[in-house]
Design goal:
With 189 residues, the protein is of the alpha/beta class. It has 2 domains: 25-101 and 142-189, Carbonic anhydrase (Beta-carbonic Anhydrase, Chain A), CATH 3.40.1050; 105-138, no CATH class. It has 7 helices and 5 strands; from the N terminus they run αβαβαβααααββ. Helix 2 (43-50) links the parallel strand 1 (33-38) and strand 2 (58-63).
Length: 189
């Protein structure tokens, strides 16, 4: 049985048994925060537990490395939607130690793409669309610097509501301990 078949089979029973009922909440974040974090599997349950978040508390956006790479990418759009349309009032970027994006080179990813059947000519078509694949697939050298970079991109965005606190943290995927990289002043409590 494929993974998706297993998921669909489980889901059928989940819905039939009404197992969704404990998770019902509104679409608005109770704690009025939007969090950008990494898609790392170790954070799926750890991050909400370490932050005392339950279903409905926060808008959580995930991508590889908790990176804002372009001020007008889908990550930034999601943050702005959370702030303007979904009543979030604060932003936190939470990276993690031991991130797979640390030290990742575009060459390594593109070599893997080719070895798994991606056509080099099709990859080169990206340049015609204005995409620099080397930059697009590049990781970072230091997770704390990456978090700071993402925080600064968000803070400088022309659509960011005035006085919106934007924080940067790094979580340990082993213990859940948070390291504060940047904390916006005036957000005690």
């Amino acid at each position: 049985m494929s993974v998706i078949d297993s998921i669909l089979s489980f889901n059928e029973k989940f819905v039939a048994d009404r197992s969704y009922e404990p998770y019902q909440t509104s679409k608005l974040p109770d704690k009025k925060i939007v969090i950008l974090t990494c898609m790392d599997t170790r954070l799926i349950e750890l991050l909400p537990q370490a932050l005392n978040l339950k279903n409905g508390d926060a808008k959580i956006i995930k991508n590889a490395g908790a990176m804002v790479s372009d001020p007008y990418d889908s990550i930034m759009r999601s943050i702005m939607v959370a702030l303007y349309a979904l009543q979030a009032e604060e932003v936190a970027v939470i990276g993690h130690y031991g991130c797979g994006m640390t030290g990742l080179t575009s060459d390594a990813v593109l070599d893997q793409a080719q070895s798994r059947g991606a056509d080099r000519e099709r990859l080169e078509e990206a340049s015609y669309a204005g995409v620099d694949l080397n930059k697009w697939m590049q990781g970072f050298d230091d997770v704390e610097e990456n978090v700071s970079h993402s925080v600064h991109m968000i803070r400088r965005h022309p659509l960011l509501p005035a006085n919106t606190p934007v924080h940067g943290l790094v979580i340990s995927p082993e213990t859940g301990e948070l390291t504060v990289i940047e904390k916006e002043a005036g957000t005690e409590g």
